[in-house]
Design a protein that fits this description.
The chain is an alpha+beta fold. It has helices at residues 3-25, 32-53, 111-114, 196-199; strands at 62-64, 70-72, 107-108, 115-123, 126-133, 135-140, 145-149, 152-159, 162-166, 171-174, 204-208, 214-219. It folds into two domains: 3-72, no CATH class; 111-219, no CATH class. It starts with a helix and ends with a strand. It binds zinc ion.
């Protein structure tokens, strides 16, 4: 929606809110039943305000309210307050949030305190999780094995039983064969540590430049 349209719609909405409030909610001698109906209408208009407010880019800046709060001149939203909903275009690029990274050298007591963002979205059947946190202390088995977990930004994607997670140090791919019952024990090794005949069982193709610089890899399913 364009600025003028949003402004116009919000103006009309505020008029409706005032109308309900002045003529019904504050009306003397109104029955309980009627009051309940008008209270609900007021609440529903409030919800419309919340959604319509998502269209506002606060184009005209902010003003101070009587309660010394800073609010948008157009939609009346208090500056800096968190939104409960996102508004996304049905077509084209959808944007939620900005790229955040760890922002403190401190080690926090709990993961909750250290968390900057930990958000998840199911996008057309794929699950994407972004977990950004500062360093924190974590303990296993009581406080016996307390360890410091490093500050990091981990992005993971789950699709058709395959999980790929990316952090500053590793790109890890877990296939749905990881839990295969054929072998219970798990091993790891660099290609040169593995015998050629065993290596031949791995459906991995390395991509590299003419100088043998690693460019990427393909895993066949
Ligand atoms: Zn606004």
């Amino acid at each position: 929606m364009k600025k003028d349209h949003v402004k116009e719609e919000l103006k009309k909405l505020f008029k409706s809110l005032d109308f309900i409030s002045n003529n019904f909610l504050n009306k003397k001698g109104i029955s309980k039943k009627e009051l309940h109906i008008f209270f609900n209408i007021y609440q529903q208009l409030g919800l419309t305000w919340e959604f319509l407010g998502l269209q506002c880019k606060h184009w005209n800046g902010y003003k101070k309210t009587k309660e010394a709060k800073i609010c948008c001149k157009i939609c009346g939203k208090i500056k800096g307050i968190g939104e409960s909903y996102y508004m996304l275009p049905a077509k084209g690029l959808k944007i939620i949030g900005t790229k955040l990274n760890p922002n403190s050298k401190k080690t926090f007591k709990t993961k909750k305190e250290a968390t900057i963002v930990n958000d998840i979205i199911s996008f057309h059947g794929s699950i994407l999780n972004v977990d950004v946190h500062n360093s924190y202390r974590s303990s296993y088995f009581g406080n016996k094995y307390a360890i410091n977990l490093a500050a990091e930004r981990i992005v993971s994607l789950k699709e058709s039983g395959v999980e790929c997670s990316i952090d500053p140090y590793l790109i890890h791919v877990k296939t749905n064969k990881t839990k295969n019952k054929r072998g219970k024990r798990k091993f790891g090794g660099f290609p040169w540590e593995i015998r050629k005949k065993d290596l031949k069982q791995f459906p991995v193709l390395f991509e590299f430049s003419e100088n043998y610089q690693f460019l990427g890899l393909t895993i066949f399913r």
